[in-house]
Structure formats: structure tokens, C-alpha cells
Write the C-alpha cells for this entry.
Amino acid sequence: APFIGLLIMFVNLFLLKDLRKFGFSLFFFLFIYFYSFEKYPGWQAYRYENWRDEAIALSTTKSNDTIDKQLEIKNYSFLNVKLDTVKIKSNKKYSLFITWSEYCKYCKTAFKKMNPSLDTIHKMNTYYIYSSPKFSSDNFLKAYKKEKNLEGRNVVADYEKRFTKKYILGGDPTFIILDNDKNEIKYLSAGYSKSLHDSIFRHIGKLN
């Protein structure tokens, strides 16, 4: 859909050379573009997966070349749901980090559809990292209690915003698979769609 809007815009610019009509075409293109991203938020990450067999999503603030693939999770502190300051220490070879906030409707869909399958994967622990830009401990606890699909799970908050500032890809949910032995990111993507859902589990299946 974004490409249809882009095509119309350039046709009008070339043939009509009318500023008002060009402006309308530009508006139409931007409308279609952002509608597509809103409705299908996984398409950017999936595009990258097809290119280099990785899911590195594009971002309005970062490119894949700026993402540091080394991640020492021990260097970051979080709050748990008891509001204790904690470090993430996984006893598994891999960790999956999923960022979320109360503003993210796709996060709710992702939790509902992914959690049953994630519960069957024994080589990896999953951590749900609260990343609201308007962080407060009250907002964190309120959001956690409302999200029934997170009950009893590894839920923490990035209260310092250091982790999400460095690794989040434009918005929630961002998915990060970390090799805990090598401190190396094996997978990184943003958004949620069926294609991205399949991509995540396909990469998990490739992990040794």
C-alpha cells in the first residue's frame, strides 16, 4: 500500500506540475504509509529479515548500523513488581526481552498469542520490560495489574531508561534474543504481526 501512494505522488508531480495537486498526493502517500505501518507494524522488520536473514527493524531514530549487538545485561538495573532493584540473571543459554507499556495495544496481542508457545521453550527465559516514557512506580504497577497475560511472569521496569534508550527500536514491542554466554544479540525486531510472530519463533527454532 505505501508504494501505491508513492507512485501516485510522482505521477502527479511529473504530469500535472500543480503544487496543490502534488500536495494532495503527498498527503495521500503519507496517509497510506502511516496507516500501513499502524495496521501492519511488523512489515519493516520482516523486510530486513528477507534481505539478510535477520530481523533488524528500521527506525525513525536509528538504523541497523547503529545498534550495538553486544549486550551485557548485568550492567543494567531494573525494578521488579515488588519495586525492588534487581539485575536480570538467567540460568538459561538464551533470554528473550520484550518491551511493553500500557500504551501499546500490539503488546497485548503479542502476549496473548505468544505466551503459550513461549512457555514450552526450555532453552530460554522470557523477560517483559516495562518501557513507558512516562515512568513512575505507580504507573508501572497499575499497568502490570491490568495486564492479565503477564501475571506470574518475569516482569521488570527499566526505571533508569538506559536499556530502552539504547536498544528499543522506535516503539513497543521490541523483541531481543540474547545469547547469555556470548553477551550477543541474536535477533532484534520491532512491532507485531503474524509474519513477525512467525519470524521470531523461526529464529528461536534455529538456536542451538
